[in-house]
Amino acid sequence: MSFIWPAMLILLLLVPLAALLYARMQRRRRQVAARYGSMLAQAGAGSALGRRRHIAPALTLAGLAILLIALARPQALVSLPRVEGTIILAFDVSGSMAADDLKPTRMEAAKAAARDFVLRQPRTVRIGVVAFSDGGLAVQAPTSEQETVLAAIGRLTPQRGTSLGQGILAALNTIAAGDKPPDLLYSNRTPTPAPAARYPSAAIVLLTDGENNQSPDPLAAAQAAAERGVRIYTVGVGSPAGTTLRVNGFTIHTQLEEPALQQIAQISEGAYYNAENQEQLQAIYDTLDLQLVVKPEQTEVTALFAGAGSVVLLIGAICSMLWLGRMP
Q1: Which residues of 60-70 are buried (b: 16+ CB within 10 A; e: fewer)?
Q2: Is 0.70 topped by the overall pTM?
């Protein structure tokens, strides 16, 4: 056990001082009784109680000692159940995300959906951010600090082409990087390939318009995620009708490609959602397969000590009232 304010423990010295004071008062009481005879000794309410008359004061001192320990704010290792998991927000930052068929732009609509999603997660769930265009990059390692994740989302801006496969693979690498490697042991045996690690409590939320124009194959990447037990929840950002966008002097037509996103979600046993449907986006958390674990954590138990001290003091007061007819 440790204490947040250990200096307060010095107040425990008051308890033995109070015990010495009580013992001195009892010795003086016996001297007075011996001096003035048995008649005065029998006049006291506690004379017929014997050693029981010391129980109420002892309980009072014990209760005070426990309350003084509570003032030091004790901490203990307590095993508490909590929901854990890793979620990677994979953002499409290709040039087409600057289209304004979702107001103000697809990128800003995706950011708004992601911010709402982050704020709905319990603090025990770690969230990371990956950005992808023609390549994939981990913008924020998985963390339970929601403010850090929101800041990373705010820094995202549209870039170049689109590779859904790169986004999925970058998200898988980010999940694997957060997992501790096993201990390495020496052996003279012929090494055998280790099976692919599985992360059943991890998930990828892929926010994109679905237009893929770069390798690798996004369906193959989705299959790799499925083999690792990672579900992909695709969020379509844009409209099926699309819009015309000027990029580097070229005029291109861009639209939401829902079939590709639905396939990716189906392969990985995830689900597809549309960013325009807020009720659907809110349902993502309900379908995440997070893990309930029990872990020892350093937890403040001040309230427990304060409650125990109060109960002991109350018992001492009741004993004193019943046996001595007064408060201790």
Answers
A1: bbbbbbbbbbb
A2: no
